[in-house]
Amino acid sequence: MRIILILTLLYTAIWSTQLDNQLFINIQNETKQVKSIYKMNANHPLWIGHAKNLNILTEALQNPYYNYKEKRFEQDTIEQYTYLLSDNMDLNQNSNDLAKLDIALTKSYIELANFIVKSDIDWDKVSQKLSELKESKDIKANWEMVKKNPPSTEELFNALTNEKINEFFNSITPLPKRHAQLIDSLNIYKQMQIKKITRIPYTKNFKGFKYGDTDPKIVDIKKRLVISGDYPKENSYSDEFDNKLKYALYNYKRRFNLEQNGIIDKITIYYMNKPIDLLVRSIITNLDKLKVFKNRFPKEYILVNIPAFSMDYYKNNQSILHMSAVIGRAQRPTPIFHSYMTYLELNPNWNIPENLVRRDLIPTLMEEPD
Q1: Which residues contact 101 (CB under 8 A, 6 or more apart)?
Q2: How far apart are CA 173 and CA 64, in angstroms?
Q3: What CA–CA distance (Å, rounded) separates 269 from 199?
Q4: Model confidence pLDDT, tens digit, residues 241-291
Q5: Is the dihedral of CA 309, 313, 315, 320 positive or negative?
Q6: Is the pLDDT of residue 146 over 80?
Q7: Which residues contact residue 254 at a Cβ distance below 8 angstroms, ignoring those fewer than 6 apart?
Q8: What's the rounded Cα separation, in Å, for the pair 38 and 219?
Q9: Which residues contact 219 (CB under 8 A, 6 or more apart)?
Q10: Distance CA 1, CA 135 (A)
């Protein structure tokens, strides 16, 4: 917030030859892309004197929808030079600091755009690690990744000149609906990190709670479900398993693909007691994975959700068929790919794969020859 308030002092149109000259000198040590985007602007400042763009960028840098890993993206440099300028507002005498500030803003803009498209993951290295699993652990892990190029200099510049930075960032966000859902979950769990969730105790003999039961632990369970957004916030909570808890439990179990038996059992409590840091990291990992999928799905498609053991048939963004799916184990993971389905074969002939014979049938026959 401080940075935005300070930068409003610079919103008057500043367009001096001295600043242009200093900017040209400073960009000589920058990357080719930084030089190119300034060249498109005749080496004039891209941010100083452009209030709308500057405000949008500083807000986007702090917006978890775009910057969900809270990367700094030159913000330390931006704050440093903004602070110096606020103490001495003789702009004509501070062309060097202004030039450094403008360049830092440009670099942060490029870095944030690249992060939105590709995250900070070296996907080539990930592919290499997966291929090495075959030799090191005899694990065949096939993951078909959609490798994406970072935004071009022309795209970046056009978004700036048209004052359409938000629209540009949204257009390069992969699978925006799923991205938004994950961001909502991430925000919930980050709030839970701040609030220091109390662990719900249970014993080996715990039989679970069902509708109509009363127990002091049910109060803690309701408070836990309030934080995750499943149970309505109230001034006080009863120790009864009521209708509101029944509905909240259904939502919670659906999110984690738990059995919908209407019971708060040991498995449910286990999930509620999972370290929040672990859940946050898991959501961030899934946000990263969206970067190597296509940016948009077609109107009609089938999606297999491996972590959820489920399959959905989607038409016009609505699931019209949902069913359970059998997936591989960690030692034999299900391949991740996308392709076109041209026909469906019912009751096909099936030959036992060589991998299954070698790793399952032969060891079993050796142990139980009879």
Answers
A1: 47, 48, 77, 78, 81, 82, 85
A2: 13
A3: 9
A4: 999 999 999 999 988 888 899 999 999 999 999 888 988 999 999 999 999
A5: negative
A6: yes
A7: 260
A8: 60
A9: 237, 238, 239
A10: 52
pLDDT of the residue at 91: 61
**CB within 8 Å of 57: residues ≥ 6 apart:** 47, 105, 108, 109, 112, 165
Topology of the domain covering 200-272: Muramoyl-pentapeptide Carboxypeptidase; domain 1 (1.10.101)
Rounded to the nearest 5 percent, the helix, strand and coil shares of the chain are: 55, 5, 40
Question: Model confidence over 6-61: pLDDT tens digits?
Answer: 444 443 444 567 888 999 999 999 999 999 999 999 999 999 888 899 999 999 99
- pLDDT band of residue 152 (cuts 50, 70, 90) is very high
Q: In what order do the strands lie in the sheet with 310-315?
A: 300-305, 310-315, 318-324
**Domain residue limits, the chain:** 2-173, 200-272, 297-366
Token readout for 199 is 């662990």
pLDDT tier at 324, thresholds 50, 70, 90: confident
- Residue whose tokens read 């409590």: 269
Residue 179 in tokens: 């991205």
- Please tell me the predicted confidence (pLDDT) of residue 88: 54
Rounded distance, CA 154 to CA 279, Å?
A: 38
Cα–Cα dist 153/160, whole Å = 11
- Condensed to tens digits (0 to 9), the pLDDT of residues 220-238 reads 999 999 988 899 999 999 9
> What six digits make up the tokens of 242?
């009521």
> Which amino acid, residue 295?
N
Taking residue 189's Cβ as centre, other Cβ atoms within 10 Å add up to 19
Q: Each residue of 249-277: b (16+ CB within 10 Å) or e?
A: beebbeeeeeeeeebbbeebbeebeeebe
